[in-house]
Amino acid sequence: MTANAPLRVALVGYGLAGSVFHAPLIGATEGLVLDTVVTSNEERRAEARAEFPDVRFAATPEEVWARADELDLVVIATPNKTHVPVARAALEAGLPVVVDKPIAGTAAEARELARLAEERGLLLSVFQNRRWDNDFRTLNRLIESGELGEVQRYESRFERWRPQLKGGWRESGDPAEIGGLLYDLGSHIVDQALVLFGPAVRVYAESDARRPGSATDDDTFIAVTHASGVRSHLYASATTAQLGPRLRVLGSRAGYVKYGLDPQETALREGLRPVPGSSWGEEPQELWGRIGSGESPLTGGGSPVPTLPGDYPAYYAAIAAALTGKGENPVTALQAAATLEVLEAARRSAREGITVTLPTAPTAPTAPSDQEPQA
User: Fold this and answer.
1) Distance CA 84, CA 102 (A)
2) Cα–Cα dist 189/78, whole Å
3) How many angstroms separate the CA atoms of 69 and 297, rounded?
4) pTM of the prediction?
5) Nearest residue to 185 via CA among 151, 140, 221
6) pLDDT tens digit sequence for 189-215
7) From 38, 75, 162, 288, which residue has the greatest number of CB atoms within 10 Å?
8) Do residues 336 and 343 lie in contact, with contact meaning Cβ atoms separated by under 8 Å?
């Protein structure tokens, strides 16, 4: 990289994660340019070329390692089981790395990668984009302002109604694939809970495969007791015929209830792109959550709370800042390891029907600041 030149990014994988999330957000970030896409699939190459006419292609990650001196960052958006070996190879090639969640199948593997990155003096970050969801940003503001008082119970739901299986590695019963909702949506809801309320000390979970032919979990509940005393009830499901509130947060002064998912994923899937000065991430007033005490939001009780816009572009803006010495890593591998400890405990709890006490209380991640650079 020369002075004022953009950081050159290689994106490994151009499936759902690569094409819908990473490539558009990289392309929208000042200071980054999508240089190379690693895929041997001709249809995916054509799709990438249509949006990024100057992009180069590689058939394998090894082709990228061979010209590591031409690149400034590798983003790994491949199937879960490949995250650890591809990230390790990228770090060994001397390249900073962003890995899609989950970074690994175990906390031990995440810590191993963190040690390697530290030894090499390289950035290793995990794409936890849901820290920049509109509802999460709004709740974080309410907690910081003290409007809820002392939070006592936190309920978070990522529920969907998808009664038919789609197939693919995400629904595979092979443990090596690291599929199922526990490690998919569970990675988001656990990470958010730890960001808000700190380390977990106890975990209880129920996990089921409810759809006909399902080989892995598609309906999971996780109860987390935090060292702070807050209790988090977390739901991830593909079998919910009637959706509950996205967030229900009960404090000593008031409660906050919010329905509906952040609009950014839908917008990205529809081909929309974040543009500075646009209404990106905003939602209509009728979807705002409500805050109150003793009233039902379903009957108009409480007061509407304007939802802060979702801001996925802030993640890669923070990555660009970290790579140029102007900011911190927005999501570290050790933070991801703390999330994986909870997920591993949840899997054991569901399997054995027990409550798992965590042996240590790792340092919790912190919520992203609204002062982070914007794309």
Assistant:
1) 10
2) 21
3) 56
4) 0.93
5) 221
6) 999 999 999 999 999 999 999 999 899
7) 75
8) no
